[in-house]
Amino acid sequence: MGNNAIKAHLENSQKTGIFQLTGKGLPEFPEELQRLTGNLRTVDLSSNKIEVLPAAIGNFLQMKSLTLNCNKLTSLPDEIGKLKKLETLMLNGNHLTQLPITVGQLKALRTLSLSGNKFREFPAGLGSLRHLDVLDLSRNHIQAVPAEVAALQAIEINLNQNQISVVSVEVSTCQRLKVLRLEENCLELTSIPVSILTTSQVSLLSVEGNLFEVKNMRDLEGYEKVSRETDACFFDIQPAAKLMIKVKARNSQATALCCL
């Protein structure tokens, strides 16, 4: 894209605080944006060919939303941690394998979306994100949910379409976790910590497309404590809370929703 076209977008961004330039084949983060470090709040450069996020990204101190989906990023600069007002960071469909430790300095971050990257391990250092609501790590190559997950403050964690075969029991101690998505992984029934059913704050557990059948959920410890409410497979765990378990058999198009 020519400089004149970028210039036209810049003029509009000076008024709105929003710069959006998607699907234009940009090979790099536009250097011209440096003119707007003082007032840019939202940047969307999705569906380009950006391979490197420059260290100068740390100069955008007013930025609240940064979206770089579907680019070619393999890493993030340490300077990303300077964006103290950043609330949304969208990096889906890149080639990231890890995050810089400075991501833990994004104290205002509420949504971190890393779907469709190349993570093989659960990213470390996210426990300091005290306002994080949603963490999306779906469509990666993660094999285990580690004990460190206990430090997370997220309300929803999406781990669909990974290679997870181990879930640490510490996931049950996440204080704010309400939604845990583990669809299309490599989980056996015995891999699911019983404490998710009995003591956690989780209200929606989604486990479609794993290595067990719906009927085998009855074998989980704690299942006998629930009482059937209807023929539609709804159960109570305790008077003040319900846990919905969403399970789909691999060879069936039908989805069963069970509340435990």
UniProtKB/TrEMBL annotation:
<dbReference type="InterPro" id="IPR032675">
    <property type="entry name" value="LRR_dom_sf"/>
</dbReference>
<dbReference type="InterPro" id="IPR003591">
    <property type="entry name" value="Leu-rich_rpt_typical-subtyp"/>
</dbReference>
<dbReference type="GO" id="GO:0005737">
    <property type="term" value="C:cytoplasm"/>
</dbReference>
<feature type="domain" description="Disease resistance R13L4/SHOC-2-like LRR">
    <location>
        <begin position="56"/>
        <end position="112"/>
    </location>
</feature>
<keyword id="KW-0433">Leucine-rich repeat</keyword>
<dbReference type="InterPro" id="IPR050216">
    <property type="entry name" value="LRR_domain-containing"/>
</dbReference>
<dbReference type="InterPro" id="IPR055414">
    <property type="entry name" value="LRR_R13L4/SHOC2-like"/>
</dbReference>
<protein>
    <recommendedName>
        <fullName>Leucine-rich repeat-containing protein 57</fullName>
    </recommendedName>
</protein>
<keyword id="KW-0677">Repeat</keyword>
<dbReference type="Pfam" id="PF23598">
    <property type="entry name" value="LRR_14"/>
</dbReference>
